[in-house]
Amino acid sequence: MNFLAFAAFGIDKARAEQGAWRISEGTLLQLAFFCGTLDACAGRAMFRHKTRKQPFSSNLHAIAALQFLGVAALFAYIWFGEELALLLNT
Questions:
Q1: Model-level pTM?
Q2: CA 26 → CA 64, 72, 87, distances in Å?
């Protein structure tokens, strides 16, 4: 699934160079959100595609930050869930 986000940046870069139909920025951001921000960022860096484009870069960084916070919250819940429940119940 992550490969899909990576490949989309390469495909869009190739299409941009050929002047062909492009993958929309919204689709690229959705792929980053659902398929993997790390691979989307890796594809963006490897293909040097949309590196200076704003607000695309800001949106991609915001997605990465939200995913990081979500993973951090999940780990906090797993590690401290019982302790937090005890504190909230007292």
A1: 0.79
A2: 15, 26, 42
CB 8 within 8 A of CB 42: no
What's the rounded Cα separation, in Å, for the pair 29 and 34?
9
pLDDT, one tens digit for every residue, the chain (90 residues): 789 989 999 999 999 999 999 999 999 999 999 988 888 888 888 888 887 778 988 999 999 999 999 999 999 889 888 887 777 775
Domain count, the chain: 1
How are the residues of the chain apportioned to helix, strand and coil, as percentages rounded to the nearest 5? 80, 0, 20
Domain membership of residue 80 as a residue range: 2-89
Phi-psi label, residue 19: left if phi above 0, alpha if psi -120 to 50, beta otherwise: left
